[in-house]
């Protein structure tokens, strides 16, 4: 029995190694084709460049800020854009550009982390639902349908209203409404890959369910996962900023973009730059992620040349 088991294990490993080698051999040409095809979509390239800039600012923005984002200057309160303060100052005399740069890490951090956790949970649920079907599929899909019946922002507001205000609860709210999107997409992708020949061969050779799911099936669903991930980040940024704007998110003293908008609306007539500039930054950020997601989806679609 032990010899038979060892031979079976060697056969499985040999099959997997051959399958991986065949994919590695074609990887370099696929990457070149992908880059060439992606570069043809100028708006997606612009979105990608803005994304890289935003990530850089999230890491080093607070060090690049010309002023202390929390420093009060009552002499220069509500000043418009000038050579000294490029984006003007707020009602406490704080430099708005410095606060926007410092707030990039907080805004993007909450949005990205919530989407990452939601994507991980939704991916696992979608893989299990697509592979096993039955009761698991019914529970995952019906639960997703219940969450989908509410608009994202209303669901997020309801969750934060139950849990209470705070940046951690905003993270939980955005994560919760992110899960069903990934669960449904990954279930469909799993069903499509599950019927592939190499999966059936691996299954006939006695591969365990865990190896089938994460070694053979999951790599075939990564394309759908990546596209949905980039598209959901824009929605997460809008939701997180909206919750902070409504007073459910970051503390009003924090340099978070939505909280800055909430403070600026009081001075819309006397200092409109307090609203326009943070709003413009949110708009450009969401647009960049959406443009990149659209371009990535078109690039990965074999029907589009």
In short:
The chain has 305 residues and is mainly alpha-helical.
In sequence order, what are the helices and strands, one letter per element?
A: HHHHHHHHHH
Helix content: over 70%
**Regarding quaternary structure, how should these chains be classified?**
single chain
What is the mean pLDDT? 83
How many DSSP E strands?
A: 0
- Cα radius of gyration in angstroms: 24 Å
Shape: elongated
Q: What gap, in angstroms, lies between the N and C termini?
A: 53 Å
Q: What fraction of the residues are assigned to beta strands by DSSP?
A: under 5%
What about the largest sheet?
none
Number of contiguous helices:
10
Structural class: mainly alpha
Uncertain stretches = none
Write a structural description:
The chain is mainly alpha-helical. The chain has 10 helices and no strands. The protein has helices at residues 2-39, 42-64, 96-132, 134-148, 152-163, 167-194, 197-204, 209-245, 257-264, 273-300. Helix 8 runs antiparallel to helix 10 (273-300). The longest helix has 38 residues, at 2-39. The termini are far apart. The relative contact order is 0.14. The mean pLDDT is 83.
Descriptive keywords:
10 helices, 305 residues, mainly alpha, single chain
SSE inventory with pairings:
Layout: H1 2-39, H2 42-64, H3 96-132, H4 134-148, H5 152-163, H6 167-194, H7 197-204, H8 209-245, H9 257-264, H10 273-300
């Amino acid at each position: 029995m032990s010899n038979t088991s060892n031979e079976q294990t060697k056969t499985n490993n040999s099959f997997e190694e051959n399958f991986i080698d065949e994919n590695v051999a074609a990887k370099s040409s696929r990457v070149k084709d992908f880059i060439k095809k992606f570069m043809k979509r100028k708006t997606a390239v612009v979105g990608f460049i803005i994304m890289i800039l935003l990530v850089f600012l999230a890491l080093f923005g607070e060090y690049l800020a010309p002023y202390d984002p929390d420093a009060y200057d009552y002499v220069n309160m509500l000043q418009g854009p000038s050579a000294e303060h490029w984006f003007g100052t707020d009602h406490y005399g704080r430099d708005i550009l410095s606060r926007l740069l410092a707030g990039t890490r907080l805004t993007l951090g909450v949005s990205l982390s919530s989407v990452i956790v939601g994507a991980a949970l939704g991916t696992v649920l979608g893989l299990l639902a697509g592979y096993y079907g039955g009761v698991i599929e019914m529970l995952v899909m019906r639960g997703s349908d219940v969450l989908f019946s509410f608009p994202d922002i209303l669901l997020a507001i309801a969750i934060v209203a139950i849990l209470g205000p705070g940046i951690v609860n905003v993270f939980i709210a955005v994560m919760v409404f992110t899960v069903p999107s990934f669960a449904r997409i990954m279930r469909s992708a799993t069903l499509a890959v599950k019927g592939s020949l190499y999966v059936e061969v691996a299954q006939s050779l006695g591969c365990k369910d865990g190896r089938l799911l994460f070694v053979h099936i999951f790599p075939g669903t990564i394309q759908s996962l990546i596209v949905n991930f980039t598209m959901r980040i824009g929605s997460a940024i809008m939701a997180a900023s909206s919750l902070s704007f409504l007073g459910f998110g970051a503390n009003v003293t924090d340099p978070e973009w939505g909280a800055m908008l909430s403070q600026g609306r009081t001075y819309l007539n006397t200092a409109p730059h307090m609203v326009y500039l943070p709003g413009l930054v949110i708009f450009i950020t969401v647009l960049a992620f959406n443009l990149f997601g659209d371009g990535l989806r078109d690039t990965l679609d074999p029907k589009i040349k």
